[in-house]
Design goal:
It is a single chain. It is elongated, with a radius of gyration of 18 Å. The protein has a five-stranded mixed sheet, with helices on one face. The protein has two helices and five strands; from the N terminus they run βββαβαβ. 22% of the residues lie in helices and 22% in strands. With 129 residues, the protein is α/β, with parallel strands linked by helices. The protein starts with 11 loop residues before the first strand and ends in a 20-residue tail after the last strand. The longest helix has 17 residues.
Length: 129
């Protein structure tokens, strides 16, 4: 009997979704990087889902060319004094990476959480508008 050909082993990477930044498993070597501002003209459109999709598509194409087949995803919101939830482009970027044929491993939230850090801006009576 002839032996069955073995399927190629998955090459894993990590996709950091702040800007779409794909690295190897250690995080030391950058494989591909793209931001929303590189794909839209107006500054106000940088954080939109459309810009995130374009950035994810560009990063995915480069990563595919370099042999990455599977991704773990790390989503990071501003954290600290800022919002604890990711922006509107995070979900669109993840969806675009999945559409490009990557096998998705784990999706992890790596938002920094302050452990009773510095005082929030705004003063005692809050920001007056």
């Amino acid at each position: 009997m002839a032996e069955k050909p073995k399927a190629p082993a998955d090459r894993w990477g990590i996709a950091h979704i702040t800007m779409v930044h794909i690295t190897d498993l250690t995080g030391a070597e950058t494989i591909s990087r793209s931001a929303g501002g590189q794909h839209v003209k107006a500054d106000r459109l940088q954080g939109t889902p459309y810009a995130a999709m374009q950035a994810a598509a560009a990063a995915a194409k480069t990563a595919k060319d370099k042999g990455i087949t599977s991704l773990h995803i790390r989503v990071r919101a501003p954290g600290g004094h800022g919002a604890r939830t990711p922006g509107p482009g995070a979900q669109a970027a993840i969806r675009m990476l999945a559409r490009h044929g990557f096998r998705i491993g784990r999706i992890e939230d790596v938002t920094p959480v302050p452990h009773d850090g510095t005082r929030r801006p705004g003063g005692r009576r809050g920001r007056r508008v």
